[in-house]
């Protein structure tokens, strides 16, 4: 390596696609790595973040439950990152693979393709998360087959005011806004993860049947959603779980919150189901897991603050139906049928701890079904383009990668392309684990860059793929004069939402459509 090469090395310019925790933590770590005050040399690094919506923060804004506002404090840290002069936010910009596929109906975002971005960046980090729910794939569960059947993703987006869930172009008899709450008494949830508990909590807190729990009214749940939920008469929420109590996916803190809900009772898990699980967990060899599961099962054994027996005449209540996996959904005879009942396969635990269907079925009448069996990622829109393909694994629903470097079907590294967060790993882990993952990706990226800059071979870059050695130091041409949203403009939207909230005695009143958000900054 020559000193002159390092001296004339082109600066690192990173495009981050997605503004959730993964994108923001990676951006902050990259910028920190070039902190002049730490003696690591400021090499002209710049980070540009692209976000499909005018609003940043991804799942922090649209996924975290409204009654967990403390989790949303990370937004302050992200705003600090955004105040770095080397950082720039481009909201309302959808990064696509090509222009082959039109945007969804009602979309107001500006499209930019990977080939259009490439000349401006040495690297691109895909961090756009998991925006689809895993399908159930059983009769009756297809899109728009039955009313009152939703994925947890849709329900969470609805109560968090996500513009996709409130897009007038999607409003039809299958939308959450049109649910006749007076008919919703029994709700079935499929899955036993923390998302299922978030959904159950919201249903039980705000239902018309709860004597008094207006705690959501002060949060950022949109007023129209609160009004709708107040008409729902949920008396019973049941979580249907395909494995036994030893394999529940939710965690202790979230279970405690459910068991302590005022005016809500938990139906005890039968002893002949709980005791064998406690016994099984006591033999676990991994100490942390053993401790966590022992505590979890202990909580289940103790039950809710409000005892179920005491609450028999009261409503609402919740419970677990273990060893049940969904088999088929049945509808009413209405012209647009609504959910009437669900068939469940009775399962047992197989040798490899999987749920095995025994052959026997049971049915239950249900008014509402929310399937909470996990999220999955999607490829970039217009993925048919072959000039600069972004690989996507359609069996695991992730961008294939080796140590977060994007690779094609044959394992060949795509120069300058990285992936982080749920898009790289699948939809598991909380914000802290996403943070560590993002830091690791940023460190790899910077390490590779430095090795290239100091070595004899130039660092592998995105811009080199389109024949450009030094990435252009400006905003991409395709975005000039377009309706993109800067970070300062987002802060104006943020202020307007807080002001609207203050007038209503709540933390924030979100804008529910992109059009309203853009109007604030016109
Ligand atoms: P999850 O924790 O992976 O839980 C998914 C649940 O769905 C599991 O009980 C799983 O059962 C079940 N399931 C999957 N496929 C199924 C099928 N075909 N039929 C029936 N059941 C099926 O996913 P999540 O609840 O969506 O949460 C995602 C991540 O976000 C988790 O890491 C979670 O901890 C985190 N999160 C955290 C919080 C919080 O900290 N408060 C809040 C929300 C989310 P099996 O175990 O049998 O596969």
Automatic annotation (TrEMBL):
Residues binding NADP(+), per UniProt: 242-243, 254, 429
Binding site for FAD: 22, 51, 59, 95, 422, 429-431
Gene3D superfamilies xrefs: FAD/NAD(P)-binding domain, NAD(P)-binding Rossmann-like Domain
EC annotation from Swiss-Prot or TrEMBL: 1.18.1.6
GO cellular component: mitochondrion
Single GO molecular function: oxidoreductase activity
Annotated localization: Mitochondrion
Name of the protein: NADPH:adrenodoxin oxidoreductase, mitochondrial
Species in which this protein is naturally found: Malassezia brasiliensis
Source taxonomy: Eukaryota, Fungi, Dikarya, Basidiomycota, Ustilaginomycotina
Gene: ARH1
